[in-house]
């Protein structure tokens, strides 16, 4: 009797050596699996390659966009640099009384520097704005009769400070060089030494900040001549007085304004049209005169130093001599017409007369001394 192991081997051997079909199927299945794995690997490789291409393309586009943006920024910086770079062909040179020649730094006009919020402000600017704000508060706080006489007094003080005070300083500078001599003797622009008093150091830093705060990169407080810094310091006083003069006059005009009784509509409209026309004409005269003479002559710079520059007196200067002092006061009479006030008209005439006195006593003698007397017409 055969044992169990023989029986099991007999029954199990056909499973191992069974039909070739099963073997072929197994081979095909193994081959298919290998092909599928290979295809899967190829598919993954293709996808990876495509993803890498897309990633590279994306990075390329980002890099290209960054380079384009950088190029635009660089181009803009170059344009700004070229714009800000000083043009040596337009540099104006100044000459002090002792013969020192220097490049005159550029300055900005008073109204832009004072009223433009984007412009840097100095201590004198804040002081001027504070005083003008106080004037406006007074105008709204005081009743009309008191307001009228208050601003008449403020305007009278401002006008006397302008024609009398500034005129006196300019006369002393023209005849005796008083302002520049004071600056030299007091050494307000000289850097204090280590043993200087604390007040001296504080005043030096204050004046340096005051003069440098509104200047450009072409200005160096310690290298420009004393005459130029003295002129800049004098300008701060001029700005305060001129703005006080103008603002107090306008507020006084508002206090004097009235509507005349029993005036026909024709006279009323004609009065306003004439007043507006004179005011606009006054504005054009001032702007065109400033275009010609610029800050240098506007602030009486030739009392301190001379510019090696030949002025071309065109525009309004071809109409009348000294347009800022003659027809440049047409706005006073235009405002008097619009306000319909004889009081304002009388004050305007008095202020205009004071300005002519300033011209004849201070400016004309200095012009004749500096540039020579005006040419006389040859007699036939």
TrEMBL record:
Pfam families with a match to the protein in the record: PEMT
Topology in the lipid bilayer: Multi-pass membrane protein
GO molecular function, one term: methyltransferase activity
Record has Membrane as a keyword: yes
GO annotation, biological process: methylation
Coiled-coil ranges (or none): none
Compartments in which it is found: Endomembrane system
Domain of life (superkingdom): Eukaryota
Alphabetical keyword list: Endoplasmic reticulum, Lipid biosynthesis, Lipid metabolism, Membrane, Methyltransferase, Phospholipid biosynthesis, Phospholipid metabolism, S-adenosyl-L-methionine, Transferase, Transmembrane, Transmembrane helix
Gene3D superfamilies to which the protein is assigned, alphabetical: 1.20.120.1630
Coarse class of the protein's main subcellular location: membrane
Name by which UniProt lists this protein: Phospholipid methyltransferase-domain-containing protein
Organism, as annotated: Myxozyma melibiosi
